[in-house]
Structures are given as structure tokens and as C-alpha cells.
Amino acid sequence: MTTPDTIGALLDRTRVLVCAGAGGVGKTTTAAALALAAARQGRRVVVITIDPAKRLADAMGVTLSHEPSLVAGVGPGELWAVMLDTRATFDGLVRRYSTDAGQVDQILANRFYRNMTGSLSGTQEYMAAEKLYDLHSDERFDLVVVDTPPTRNALDFLDAPARLVRFLDHRLYRVLVAPTKLGMKVANVAAQAFLKTISRVVGGDAIADAIAFFRAFDGMEAGFRQRADSVMTLLQSADTAFVLVTSPRHEAIDEAIFFAGRLRDKELKVSAIVANRVHPVFGPHLDDDTIASGTARNDGTPLGDLWVNLGTLRRAWLSEQAALEPLLGHTGGAVVATVPLLDHDVHDLDTLGEIAALVASTPTPTPTPTPAPRPTARPNSPVPARPAGRARKPPPRPG
Fold first, then answer.
1. How far apart are CA 304 and CA 159, in angstroms?
2. What kind and span of H or E run contains 243?
3. What are the pLDDT digits (tens) for 276-317?
4. To the nearest 5 percent, what fractions of the chain are helix, strand and coil?
5. Residue 164 exposed, middle or buried by CB count within 10 Å (0-12, 13-18, 19+)
6. What CA–CA distance (Å, rounded) separates 113 from 238?
7. How confident is the model at residue 131 (pLDDT cuts 50, 70, 90)?
8. Neighbouring residues of 181: CB distance < 8 A, sequence distance ≥ 6
């Protein structure tokens, strides 16, 4: 796939877009904005979110559930939104690969299965990958945008299909489901000893439920294995692109670099970076020496206060660019878009559309960061800059 020069071009040519990043960087909002941008470019898009903020559902005007909901008024394409339901997704797989209705009822009623779908580590991540594949195969959509959990859990999402295949190939699993001449009995003495030891910790009933589940599961492994292989193939295909969402904070950048490295280990790459809550560049036509000179020349005057503010804001921008620089070095060739600090929350489709326009278009060129002389600021100088990550709530609308 040719590297696009804008995220808008990336939205035109991919079929799966996976958004990943640390917690608190605006990843869910960015995923929704990317989906909206693609819909406005004419594509039929569905965005799947793992743990959405209620305000995002309110902004899109839908009630998020396991089934896709159509967001009205985004044309010329379509925008749908869906929230992952781990249990419902797993139930769907059981129904798909079971041999008969009795097997379905036996599994769905099993206590081990019910507990596993709600709390077993890795289940949510695998079901997220499964739901992605399901939506990708749905003829209603030609682009799936995935909002993953925070970065390290996103890696679990990528690894989940392979882990399932390894589990199905594990010797202990084969022993638990292997029939013998005496019927569906655990035949291996070593396995019996192991299970007795475990039952002392978790209880005999829990072990019995687990064995009953795996025996009921017998015969379905081929379908699950084939599906897991298909999911892995999709994630590694040229149809799938990865977008790193970050903010100009060192801890968020470190997480993004970590994720980029893990993708590289899997022979995958980051296609785009979205940096949220970045200070804009004030006075881009002025160099640092001019700012320092203006500050000194107007010292003690109201204009001097403005020069001090300008210098403060320029240093904030320089600091953020320096924080982002290492990530750019680890993701050479990735498209970069920045979303500036906004003075309002995302509370409806119009405000979500503002972010969509910012991330889909080519970023505005900015000066090359160079060390700036530090002007002497006077006490109580007004600095009209809001700290990164804080946003003023929008004023109430008339009527």
C-alpha cells in the first residue's frame, strides 16, 4: 500500500483502522472523529468502541449496544456505532460453530462458561478481535474503525487470536476433551493429580464445571481455530492500518513508542499519528530572537506583557514538539495530524466534526523547533493559555 500524504487519503483506501494509545489521550473521541470523517468522504463506516464515554454516545445521538446503530445526518456516506458486548459475541460464536441445539444449550448454561465470558483474562480482547472480523465481513460496511483499550491491553487485542490457537493445541486441553473406552473421562493420571490439586484451591464444583464445558466444546475447535487464523490474517493484511493517538506528554509518548515497537516486532507499522491537545503556534512568522527583542524593548508597557505571553506560548509549543520528536523517529513515514487545545468539549456532531476535519486534512506547516532565548517574565504577567488537557464546558445553547 502506497503511503498516503493525509489521514483523509488513508481513510479512503483502508478497510480496517485500528486506533491505539495510552489512556486519557482522547483515543475514543479520535476514533469516532476518524469514522465521521470517512463517512463524510462517502464511505459506509462502523466504529466499534470497547469502553465508550457516555458523552461520546450523546454527541453521536445514539444509544450504543452490541448491534450497530446508525448515526443520522452525516452523509454522503453512513456512520454506524457499536459497543463491544463480550458475552453476546462469545454466544454468537458458540451458536455458529456448534453441531446442534443441544450443544448450544449445554455450553450457554454452563457456570464455567458464564464466568469465563465475564471475567477470564483475555476473553474481552479476543472477542474484540472477533467482533472486528464480524463487522469487516458485514456487507453493510466498507470501513471498520476500532477503538482499542489503552495501549498494553491493545497489544492483548492483537495477540488474542494467536493465544486462542495455542490454547486449543495445548496438551492439557486435548486431555480434558479426549474420549476413552470408558467414555468422556479424563484418562491421564498426571492430569487427574493436577486437577485434584487445583480443586483444593478453587473447589471441586468449579473444576467439574470447567471439564463439562471443555467436553461440551469438543468438536467446535476447528471452527474457532479457523476463525482465529482469519482474524490474524486480517490484522496483518494491507487492508488494515494502525493509528497511534497520543498527546504531548512524555508518559503518553513513551506508551506510543512502546506500541510502535511491538507492531514492528510483528512486522506491522504505524500508518498515522494523531497528537491531541497541542498548543498552536502563535506568531509563526516571528523567530525567537524577534520575540526576545520585542519583550525587552517593551518592558514595563502593556505591549510588553503581550510579548511575554507570546514567548511563554512559544516555549510551550517548543516543549511539546520536543516531546513528540522521539515518536516521529520511531514511526518514520507515518502521516502526522495535530489537534490543538480547544475551548470546548465534544458534545454534538458539529464539535466532533471539527476534530474530524482537523485529523483528516494535511496539518498546517509549523516552524522548525529551535532553542529559544528565555525572556525574563515579570510577576503576575497574564498568560492566556489553558493547561493541556483541560477544556472549558460549552455555554448552554439558547432554547
1. 56
2. strand 240-246
3. 999 888 888 888 888 888 888 888 888 988 999 999 988 888
4. 50, 10, 35
5. buried
6. 35
7. confident
8. none
